[in-house]
Structure formats: C-alpha cells, structure tokens
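Entry 14. Structure prediction run on the chain below.
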Amino acid sequence: MDEVRVVVAHHERATLRVGDMFLKIDADQTRTGIEAEAMALAPVPTPKVLWHKPPVLAIAAVPGTALGRLGEPSTASPAAWVAAGAAVRTLHDGPLPPRPGRAGRDLDELAAELDGECEWLVTNGVLPADLVTRNRQVAEAAFRPWTPVFTHGDLQIAHVFVDGDEITGIIDWSEAGQGDALYDLATLTLGHEEHLGDVVTGYGTDVDIDLDVIRAWWSLRSLLGVRWLVEHGFDPAAPGCEVDVLRSRM
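Output returned:
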C-alpha cells in the first residue's frame, strides 16, 4: 500500500497524498466542485481530475517542482518566472468563468473587512499601529475599477509547478473565477519582489500593469491573512512571510 502523507491540513480543508494521487477534502462542499470546473475551463496546464465525490476531489500529481515557497529563496530560473508570467496571461486571456472568484470580491465589502482586520491587529497588539496604518494606506490603491478576467484566486508560487523553464501545471483552483488580474500577479510575487520584473516580462508589456496596485495587493493580502494564519496554526511572522512583506512597505 502507498504511504499516506498529509500535504496540508487546517480547520477548513486538508490535502492528502497517496502515491501519485492527491485527495482534497473541503469543509465547504461547493469548493471542490468549483475547483473541478475551473480546471476543466482553464487554458493552462492543470492536474487531471481522477474522480470527484463531494467533499472529496481526487487529482493526479503534476510533474516538476513548485516555483518556490513563501519565506524561502526560489531556486527556479528567471526564465521559469517569465514562463509563469506568460501562463498567467494565457489564463487571463481565456473565456470568463461563470462566477466571481476570490479576486473578484465586492470592493466595498473588501474595504470593510480590511478595516476590521486592521482594527483587530492593533487592538490585540499583534502588529504595531504604525505598521498597520502605513500598509492600510498602501492598500488603498487596490480599490479601483478593473476589468474582470479569468483569475486563479490563490496563485501562490507553491501552486505553480515547473520543469526547468517550462510550466507543467497549476494546482489549487478552489478560489478561481472572475476577478482582478493584478490580484493574481501580486499573489504570485508576494514575498518575491525580486522576480516581479520577470513575471511582468512574461505577462507582456502590451497591457497596463500598475506596479503600485500590485504592491497594494501585497499589503492588502498580508493584512487580511495574519489573523487567519495564526488561527489555523501557521506563522505569518516567519522570515520572508506576511509580516516581513508588511515591514518592507515601511
């Protein structure tokens, strides 16, 4: 029998690996359906769906290795980062999926959530008030009109797999849907600002990419993520992770 390995587990979902198969178990049964649908629609390499019986989604492993990990230097080549940018552009140019995703949330609701999280961070002494205030100011640039595209919604570098300089697969599509293109670009480069130029080169300079908005999403995503990470057993203050991202805006 193949060894069962826990890839990630928290209060909302868990992913297990059995040989070359991954089993994704989600407390929200709709998310595995959204993920399977998004992978079927996405015009980029995705894992093969082996079977789907909510709340479990079984997918095949993709070849290659992750582009990197948050908090660790990426060993991928600059060409691989360029290829990642090109893959994101292909996704964004694809036909719109049927529903909004995480990157397409209502801006008024998002701003209200952000204000609530900032208040919690300061009131509970989790982060210094000046750090939170500065990043809240930076985050303001994300609140502007945008044209919906097909977004991944959780495009962390650990979700992009490469073999050499080629993209072999993009995983974890449960947050996919219509959304802001710059949210995906910001998520991909979060904590790896040194590779933003490579990603933009691959994405293409024929479209307007506002780097201030990408930086705003870095601050916004990090401010929103700190409490969730703490409550789910992760450390946002680990070197190179969300708290360091917030400090870099100072």
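The chain has one domain: 62-248.
Filed with the rest of this week's runs.
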